[in-house]
Write a structure and sequence with these properties.
- One of its GO terms (molecular function) is DNA-binding transcription factor activity.
- The chain is elongated, with a radius of gyration of 22 Å.
- The chain starts with a strand and ends with a helix.
- α3 crosses α4, α5 runs antiparallel to α8 and α8 (about 135-155) crosses α9 (about 195-205).
- A hairpin with a 2-residue loop joins β1 (about 1-5) and β2.
- The chain is about 55% helix and about 0% strand.
- The chain has two domains: about 1-70, Arc Repressor Mutant, subunit A, CATH 1.10.10; about 80-274, no CATH class.
- It contains 15 helices and two strands.
- The longest helix is centred in the middle third of the chain and has 25 residues, at about 135-155.
- The chain is mostly helical.
- A two-stranded antiparallel ribbon has the order 1-2.
- It binds a DNA duplex through α3, α4 and α7.
Length: about 270
DNA sequence: AAGATCCGCAACCGCTCCGAC
DNA sequence: GGTCGGAGCGGTTGCGGATCT
């Protein structure tokens, strides 16, 4: 409720202007996608008006960037992505858009949500602040190495069929025009996995790189999507059901939750109490 | 079976930055 | 230099589905 010049107003400015809020309808999505396909993106306020959408430019921009854009990835955050997020967050803090730039197809909103719902949950379990040195040390010395272990185990034991097809009910809004961006599955067996070098680095018992500032950001530029994550399979067309049966991608449940077990939490609490 | 609670995520909000005028 | 509008960012909210009691 807003008060203007002593007069109580129950309507927001947007409502007065006849602007809609809340969840987007299919019709609005289609309108926005068609308009952008014809005229391109940008100038969001005028775009919203020209397209006949009763939405703010901000709302259109957000809907496009976080949901409708053809290259938006949907689905669980992979182990590799979790690793990157942890590493990049330890470096840059809550610079979500900057972090998102290093995770192709992921939006800042998605990463932010992941951090808040998963990572902060673990901090809460450990009864420490997510920004505390204790929690950061915990991530660096236990969580990240554990992730690396799991990635390493996954890459050495699994082959994923490359004739996967995406079933329609697993994508909320099928990207209409990006089939041309599909990664070739031919590259799967022919490229060297940077993940293995990454895991070697972390697991190197001689040099103990866990304690050093490992330049993951620079390395990640050389990561072929089709090899290190399901990303390539998304773009090549995939079968989520098949992937769900492949534990290293989606795990047997929540991938991040699985990183912790009772012993870990007990151990950490002992450390934190020291 | 039904209500309560939890959780994930889409969407919104407020603020800052930046370029055009 | 000041103002304005567009764009982008990080924080927050609220809805809906899942899970628990």
């Amino acid at each position: 409720m807003e008060i203007e010049d002593g007069v109580v107003c129950n309507q927001s400015e947007e409502e007065i202007l006849g602007l809609r809020r809340g969840p987007w309808t299919v019709e609005e999505d289609v309108t926005l996608m068609n308009y952008i396909a014809k005229h391109g993106e940008g100038r969001w306020n005028s775009l919203a008006r020209s397209a006949g959408l009763r939405r703010t430019g901000k709302s259109c921009r957000l809907r496009w960037l976080n949901y409708l854009r053809p290259d938006v990835r949907r689905g669980n955050i992979t182990l590799e992505e979790q690793l990157l997020i942890l590493e990049l967050h330890s470096r840059w803090g809550n610079r979500w858009s900057k972090i998102a730039q290093h995770l192709p197809g992921r939006t800042d909103n998605e990463i932010k949500n992941y951090w808040r719902t998963r990572v902060q949950k673990h901090a809460k379990q450990l009864k420490c602040d997510v920004n505390s040195k204790q929690f950061k040390d915990t991530m660096r010395h236990l969580w990240i190495p554990r992730l690396v272990e799991r990635i390493q185990a996954a890459t050495t034991t699994t082959a994923i069929p490359n004739n996967m097809n995406m079933s329609s009910d697993q994508v909320l809004v099928p990207p209409p025009e990006n089939s041309s961006t599909a990664a070739s599955s031919d590259s799967f067996g022919t490229q060297i996995s940077p993940i293995s070098s990454m895991t070697d680095y972390y697991n190197d018992p001689v040099n103990n790189h866990c304690n050093q500032d490992y330049d993951l950001v620079n390395q990640i530029h050389y990561v072929p999507d089709s090899l290190t994550s399901p990303y390539g399979y998304f773009h090549g067309g995939l079968d989520f059901q098949a992937m769900e049966q492949t534990p290293q991608w989606f795990g047997s449940g929540n991938t991040s939750d699985n990183l912790w077990n009772v012993e870990d939490i007990w151990f950490l609490q002992q450390q934190l109490n020291m």
